Amino acid sequence: MEPLKEKLTGFQKRLELLIAKIDTAEKQKRIKEIELESANPGFWDDRQRAEKLMQELTELTRQQEALSGLGKRIEEAQIGLDLMSQDEAEKELREIGKGLDGLELKTFLSGPYDRNDAILSIHSGQGGTEAMDWAEMLERMYLRFIEKKGWKAEVVDLTPGEEAGIKSATITINGHYAYGYLKGEAGTHRLVRQSPFNADRLRQTSFALIEVLPKIEETAAVQTKEGDLEWEFFRSSTQGGQNVQKVSTAVRVRHKPTGITVTCQSQRYQEQNRKIALLLLTAKLWAAAVVQTKEEKEKIKGEYKVAGWGNQIRSYVLHPYKLVKDLRTGVESSNPESVLDGDLDLFVEAEVKNVV
Question: Does the global pTM surpass 0.70?
Answer without folding.
Answer: yes
